[in-house]
Amino acid sequence: MADPPWLPPQNFLGLPPELCDPGTARSAVLPIPYEATTSYGTGTRRGPSAILEASAQVEFYDPELDAEPCRTGIHTYPALDLPAGDSRQALAMLRAVYGDLVREALRTGRFLVGLGGEHGLTYPLVAAWHEALGRGAGLHVLQLDAHADLRDEYQGNRFSHACVMRRVVEEGVPVVAAGVRSISVEERDVIRERSLTVVFGHELGARGWVDRVLRALGPQVYLSIDVDFFDPSLVPATGTPQPGGASWAQALELLRGVFAERRVVAADVVELAPVPGLHAPDFAVAKLVYKLIGYRWNLRT
Ligand SMILES: [Mn+2]
What we know:
- This protein is α/β, with parallel strands linked by helices.
- Helix content is 33%, strand content 15%.
- It has a single domain (24-298), classed as Ureohydrolase domain (Arginase, Chain A), CATH 3.40.800.10.
- The protein has helices spanning 47-55, 87-108, 122-133, 164-170, 185-193, 209-216, 248-261, 280-298, and strands at residues 27-32, 74-76, 111-116, 139-144, 175-180, 197-200, 220-226, 263-270.
- It has an 8-stranded parallel sheet with strand order 2-1-3-8-7-4-5-6, with helices on both faces.
- Strand 4 (139-144), helix 4 and strand 5 (175-180) form a beta-alpha-beta unit.
- Helix 6 (209-216) packs parallel to helix 7 (248-261).
- Bound molecules: manganese (II) ion (MN).
- Residues 119, 145, 147, 149, 161, 226 line the site of manganese (II) ion (MN).
């Protein structure tokens, strides 16, 4: 009898079994379709599956690196189905599950990439790394984002996507941001009081902008990319798009510098809200995720 018609679980790049083996893969992708506090456009819960689906169209070979980065192995975890409705409970559950993955990643040297989902999920991921590495590790967050996400609360929720970096800073992890171009006076004051380094949207590509980011970062970096960092001409499929964002070339220029000069322990890519029938943004984000993995293992060991 023929094999039963099961669809394979979604697997980043559609890799054959030997290249996504959880025992040997040097990178792992964790789909987190979490959406609780999105304020304008919705749909980030469909982000992870759209990224995985589009990733099947990404070429394994990367001419920039002259390598097939997938040869280092990329495991895809099953998607994490967090309870809807109670963001505090969902994020506590995420923290517990992800904490186990972080301990495993520290043992094996694995590079973890979380796929969102809304930006609120970054706080428990960073907190898990901060706890596992310890205070002396010099962990910094690099946030690529149109928004500062530094509000103390938003729509009555302290764990909203609009507050995520405020929670990270309060945890004692310094945040360095690039691409910010929509920000309140309250957030500007937090940046000044805490002397945070922010490369604003109008400064992207200015002389020395990548060095400004690098100088502000400690030896270990957690990278959080809100896809509204990109110009909406490239990624319109996001809840709160803002004109004046990064080009593809600017984003890669910055990421090459960061991956070459710092140890990036983990990353997340959040806030893709797929638009049915519009494949270009889903593909751009899938290719971005593959770039992160390629840079992680080809620019530094
Ligand atoms: Mn954000």
